[in-house]
Each structure stands twice: as structure tokens, then as C-alpha cells.
């Protein structure tokens, strides 16, 4: 996919009054908050559109900086790296942690236990 066609698609999606995410799901998520009693249709539309644009921005940033650009793919590791390395997305590091092997995790746990025993 060429860079120009990708930019054109992003521009069309940004200016579109249509939404791709199901508004009923967004409404359900919004209503799950105890602070929300009723949701205006305009607020629901704007929240849905903002969510779409955010996901699109995250995906595009991850794709641009990711390793799958030559294969035209986007992987979890691309998203996790973007969340960790880009200041804008650092609030997502708990949601998109880098994957580690179980043996590496166990080694780090053992190292922590050894440190705690020494103290």
C-alpha cells in the first residue's frame, strides 16, 4: 500500500460523518461508569468518532514505526513498542506490555527474591 493512498484513506475517515465502531457498544461501555446516568446522542457520536480516530492514530503510528511495514502487517509487538517509546501513548504501557518469555520472567522473579533476601 502506498504512502499516498494510506494518507488519503486517513483523510477520508477523519472527515467522514460515518462511524465504523458500533455505537451501541460504545454506549454500553460509557454506561458501565457509575458516574454516567444518560448519554446524549451527540456525545455518543463524538465519543465513538474520537475513539475511532485514536485507534487509527495508534495503528498508523505503530505501522509506520513497526517492523511489519515491508510485509504490510501490524503486530502486537509493533503496538507494544509504540506504547512504550512514544510519549503520547505511554499511558497504554500497562494495557499493551511487551511480551516476555516465561523463563525470562521466572529469572527476573528469582533475581528480585535474591535481592530481597540480601536486604
Any key phrases for this structure?
mainly alpha; Histone, subunit A; 119 residues
Can you give a write-up of this model?
By secondary structure, the protein is mainly alpha-helical. The protein has one domain: Histone, subunit A (Orthogonal Bundle). Helices cover 62% and strands 0% of the residues. The protein is built from five helices and no strands. It has helices at 3-15, 23-31, 41-65, 76-85, 102-118. Helix 3 crosses helix 4. The mean pLDDT is 85.
List the uncertain runs: none
What's the CATH class, please?
Answer: Mainly Alpha
**Structural class given helices, strands, pairing?**
mainly alpha
Determine the CATH topology: Histone, subunit A
Question: Please, how many domains?
Answer: 1
Largest sheet: none
CATH superfamily: Histone, subunit A
In total, how many beta strands?
0
Radius of gyration: 20 Å
Which outline best applies? flat
Oligomer: single chain
Element-level helix/strand string? HHHHH
* CATH 2nd-level architecture: Orthogonal Bundle
The residue fraction in helices comes out at 55-70%
Estimate what percentage of residues fall within beta strands. Answer: under 5%
Overall mean confidence score, pLDDT: 85
Distance between the termini: 56 Å
Amino acid at each position: 500500500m502506498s504512502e499516498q493512498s494510506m494518507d488519503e484513506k486517513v483523510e477520508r475517515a477523519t472527515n467522514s460523518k460515518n462511524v465504523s465502531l458500533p455505537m451501541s457498544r460504545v454506549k454500553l461501555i460509557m454506561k458501565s461508569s457509575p458516574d454516567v446516568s444518560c448519554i446524549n446522542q451527540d456525545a455518543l457520536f463524538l465519543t465513538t468518532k474520537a475513539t475511532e480516530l485514536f485507534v487509527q492514530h495508534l495503528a498508523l503510528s505503530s505501522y509506520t514505526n513497526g517492523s511489519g511495514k515491508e510485509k504490510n502487517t501490524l503486530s502486537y509487538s509493533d503496538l507494544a513498542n509504540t506504547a512504550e517509546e512514544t510519549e503520547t501513548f505511554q499511558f497504554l504501557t500497562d494495557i499493551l506490555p511487551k511480551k516476555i518469555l516465561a523463563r525470562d520472567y521466572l529469572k527476573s522473579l528469582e533475581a528480585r527474591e535474591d535481592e530481597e533476601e540480601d536486604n
